[in-house]
């Protein structure tokens, strides 16, 4: 149970209400450092709301979201302004409906992701305009880093094409590359395999495993594609109607009657037992 | 599994046949007949009064001209649509490798030779005009027109930062122009500061007002942003009218110190510009100096903007235009980014304003009405948002165009001696603009030039570039 011993993300009693609607209800879970944690649940379970709370797009109604840095210090994400969650807390995210800068080239997309370090290198624009300081060198390094990620996601040949021209699968990978260019400690992926064919989804698995292995980035992902979830995740959290119904390793979760009930839409506990007996799980 | 059957649809007749002349002639003939039918009661007779009597004068010639005109236009329309349909139905080979919406890149045609060409013309313009017109006095009109156009080029480039790059629709840009003009007018008349000290001060003051405007509108988008910026422009104008103690109200501020050549006045006496440089005194020396002054300021605006586009702040502006939410998720402080765009755009507006004051020697709130904002915005939109060269061309067309149309006396040959082109110039101009927006809805140069390249420079089709949410 690595996620209990050394969590990178600690969500405590998170509640999000929109008027009378309770989207997330008293949710607590941990994501382990170096783990791939999957957040699953039926449509409308509140997964994306949890993501939006973690990445600062919503301010939670109640609760605490703590990010633990490798040196042991805490940052409370719900108190940081939106952009600082990426810059100071090093949490990066992708979006369910891809949000690339479609009119900018692939390379430009990756340079925008390195905005803050480049901004410092350009002396907050003042030195950069005059051509002073180390901006030129910093930009070269930024391009090198972008190239590294383009090679890793096999997009290097399309570096000078506008992002909006890429096919869907490439756009998904570019969004991950762009998020990785911010050097995140925690990468949050909102349905990264949506719309991918089986081969692309397998490729995505390799990419995510290599991100975790080579860069020490922990991954939190929302996914409906069970081949991705069960294959690569170390830890699965199941949401239904905004509450956590199960939490554990993939095999534990797979056999949890509550999860089966949630996915099959059976309410009665006895009926669940019956269904479980029938399917022989 | 059955493989999907490959179907080949036979191309339809209308497309393969490039232009069906018989059908077109038939249709055009029909249109001409309809015109004839309409023209007989409307055009063919005209009542004329001579003394107490009324005569019917026949105008069959006019009817024939109208019918012929309709016939010809209809035929032309057929030919045009047929070739267009044919071209669309039979794509050329290279189109297969291009994105669907990529039109032949006007930018690539223009940019190679146009930029040095325009720069050369702009630098040599006063001398060319003096040579063509044969004297300094005769070229006054043209040099004044050049100064006017360059002022709008500079304003367009300034607004381009806010609207074109950051995608924030600003309908009150003239407010910063006014702040710059009044800054110079007040600082020079009250404290006797010189133009070169007032210029940066005017820029700083305008930038400050840009930030003051920026704060309340940070959360606004689209129409709401446009309305608030519009209101801001009006507020500044109304304050200038009503704060009589400071601004002298609607009467304006007159006798603003005129431009000097870095301290040397353009006067006809000992120590004047002409005297010092051994030239014969002429009032146009100042005009030419002003021309180069505004050219320098406009080029400075262009240089800074081009530079900023390649810096992180410029990329952040463009990213903000493309997708604000994605920007925030990448750690970009969108508040600061928007404010810098407002401040920098306003600063260049302030520079242009203080140039306006030093050129006119007189400022009044009347010069800073909404129409000015609208013209500047039209320049940016017509030029193609974000494109520097497009904005420059649009400024020449929009400011120079109505002036050129003053001189269309040859139209009198068509419409009779009583025709005054001056009365119709704005109508003609409006038609031209509508045609322009039909032809190129994203502006003259809609392609976006990437700010950084790895291997190969490719222009980005305007259909991919977003207009921003403002």
From TrEMBL, chain A:
Pfam families xrefs: ABC_tran (PF00005), BCA_ABC_TP_C (PF12399)
Keyword ATP-binding: yes
This protein's record includes keyword ATP-binding: yes
GO-annotated biological processes: D-alanine transmembrane transport; L-alanine transport; L-isoleucine import across plasma membrane; L-valine import across plasma membrane
PANTHER family for this protein: CONSERVED COMPONENT OF ABC TRANSPORTER FOR NATURAL AMINO ACIDS-RELATED, HIGH-AFFINITY BRANCHED-CHAIN AMINO ACID TRANSPORT ATP-BINDING PROTEIN LIVG
The protein's name: Branched-chain amino acid ABC transporter ATP-binding protein
InterPro entries membership: AAA+_ATPase, ABC_AA/LPS_Transport, ABC_transporter-like_ATP-bd, BCA_ABC_TP_C, P-loop_NTPase
Source organism of the structure: Microvirga vignae
Record SMART domains: AAA (SM00382)
Segments forming domain ABC transporter: 9-266
A single cellular component GO annotation: plasma membrane
Keyword set, alphabetical order: Amino-acid transport, ATP-binding, Nucleotide-binding, Transport
Protein family (similarity comment): Belongs to the ABC transporter superfamily.
UniProt GO molecular function: ATP binding; ATP hydrolysis activity; L-isoleucine transmembrane transporter activity; L-phenylalanine transmembrane transporter activity; L-valine transmembrane transporter activity
CDD domains reported for this sequence: ABC_Mj1267_LivG_branched (cd03219)
TrEMBL record, chain B:
Ranges where the High-affinity branched-chain amino acid transport system permease LivHM N-terminal domain occurs: 24-125
Protein name from the UniProt record: ABC transporter permease
Transmembrane segments: 60-77, 113-135, 141-161, 168-187, 193-217, 224-244, 288-305, 339-362, 374-401
Sorted UniProt keywords: Cell membrane, Membrane, Transmembrane, Transmembrane helix
Organism, as annotated: Microvirga vignae
Membrane topology: Multi-pass membrane protein
Predominant subcellular localization, coarse grouping: membrane
Compartment(s): Cell membrane
Highest taxon listed in the record's lineage: Bacteria
A molecular function GO annotation: branched-chain amino acid transmembrane transporter activity
GO cellular component: plasma membrane
Alphabetized CDD domains for the sequence: TM_PBP1_LivM_like
């Amino acid at each position: 149970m690595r996620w209990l011993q050394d969590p990178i993300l600690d969500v405590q009693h998170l509640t999000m209400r929109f008027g009378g609607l309770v989207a997330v209800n008293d949710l607590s879970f941990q994501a382990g450092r170096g783990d791939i944690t999957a957040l699953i649940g039926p449509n409308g379970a509140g997964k994306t709301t949890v993501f939006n709370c973690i990445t600062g797009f919503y301010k939670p109604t109640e609760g605490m979201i703590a990010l633990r840095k490798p040196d042991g210090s805490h940052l409370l994400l719900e108190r940081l302004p939106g952009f600082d969650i990426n810059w100071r807390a090093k949490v990066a995210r992708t979006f369910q409906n891809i949000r690339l800068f479609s009119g900018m080239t692939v390379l430009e997309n990756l340079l925008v992701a390195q905005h803050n370090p480049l901004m410092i290198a350009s002396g907050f624009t003042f030195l950069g305009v005059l051509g002073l300081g180390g901006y030129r060198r910093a930009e070269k390094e930024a391009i090198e880093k972008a190239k590294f990620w383009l090679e890793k996601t096999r997009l290097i040949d399309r570096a000078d094409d506008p992002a909006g021209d890429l096919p869907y699968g490439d756009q998904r990978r570019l969004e991950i590359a762009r998020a990785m260019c911010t050097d995140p400690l925690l990468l949050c992926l909102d349905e990264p395999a949506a719309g991918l064919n089986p081969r692309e989804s397998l490729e995505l698995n390799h990419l995510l495993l290599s991100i975790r292995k080579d860069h020490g980035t922990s991954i939190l992902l929302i996914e409906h594609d069970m081949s991705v979830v069960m294959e690569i995740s170390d830890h699965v959290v199941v949401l239904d109607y905004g509450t956590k119904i199960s939490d554990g390793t993939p095999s534990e979760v797979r056999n949890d009657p509550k999860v089966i009930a949630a996915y099959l839409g059976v309410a009665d506990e006895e009926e669940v037992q019956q269904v479980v007996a029938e399917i022989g799980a | 599994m059955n493989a999907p059957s490959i179907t080949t649809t036979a191309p339809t007749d209308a497309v393969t046949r490039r232009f069906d002349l018989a059908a077109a002639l038939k249709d055009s003939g029909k249109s001409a007949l309809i015109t004839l039918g309409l023209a007989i009661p409307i055009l063919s007779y005209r009542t004329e009064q001579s003394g107490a009597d009324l005569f019917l004068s026949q105008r069959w010639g006019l009817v024939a001209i109208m019918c012929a005109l309709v016939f010809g236009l209809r035929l032309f329309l057929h030919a045009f649509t047929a070739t267009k349909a044919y071209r669309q139905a039979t794509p050329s080979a290279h189109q297969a490798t291009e994105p669907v919406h990529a039109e032949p890149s006007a930018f690539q045609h223009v940019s190679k030779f146009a930029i040095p060409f325009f720069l050369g013309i702009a630098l040599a313009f006063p001398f060319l005009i003096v040579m063509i017109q044969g004297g300094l006095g005769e070229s006054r009109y043209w040099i004044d027109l050049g100064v006017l156009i360059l002022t709008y080029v500079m304003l367009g480039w300034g607004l381009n930062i806010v609207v074109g790059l950051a995608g924030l629709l600003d309908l009150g840009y003239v407010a910063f122009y006014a702040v710059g003009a009044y800054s110079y007018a007040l600082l020079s008349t009250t404290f006797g500061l010189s133009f070169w000290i007032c210029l940066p001060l005017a820029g700083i003051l305008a930038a400050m007002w840009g930030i003051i405007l920026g704060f309340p509108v940070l959360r606004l988008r689209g129409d709401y942003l446009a309305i608030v910026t519009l209101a801001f422009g009006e507020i500044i104008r109304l304050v200038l009218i009503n704060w009589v103690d400071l601004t002298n109200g609607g009467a304006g501020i007159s006798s603003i110190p005129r431009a000097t050549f870095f301290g040397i006045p353009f006067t006809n006496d000992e120590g004047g510009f002409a005297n010092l440089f051994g030239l014969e005194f002429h009032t146009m020396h100042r005009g030419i100096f002003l021309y180069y002054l505004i050219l320098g300021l406009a080029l400075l605006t262009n240089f800074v903007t081009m530079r900023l586009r390649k810096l992180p702040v410029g990329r952040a502006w463009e990213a903000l235009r493309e997708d604000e939410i994605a920007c925030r998720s990448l750690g970009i402080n969108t508040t600061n980014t928007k404010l810098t765009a407002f401040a920098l755009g306003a600063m260049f507006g302030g520079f242009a304003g203080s140039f306006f004051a030093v050129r006119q020697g007189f400022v009044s709130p009347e010069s800073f009405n909404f129409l000015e904002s609208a013209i500047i915005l039209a320049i940016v939109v017509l030029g193609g948002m974000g494109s520097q060269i497009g904005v420059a061309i649009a400024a020449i067309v929009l400011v120079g165009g109505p002036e050129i149309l003053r001189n269309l006396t040859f139209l009198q040959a068509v419409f009779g001696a009583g025709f005054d082109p001056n009365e119709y110039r704005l109508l003609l101009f409006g038609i031209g603009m509508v045609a322009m927006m039909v032809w190129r809805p994203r502006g003259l140069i809609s392609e976006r030039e990437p700010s950084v390249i790895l291997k190969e420079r490719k222009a980005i089709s305007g259909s991919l570039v977003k207009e921003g949410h403002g």
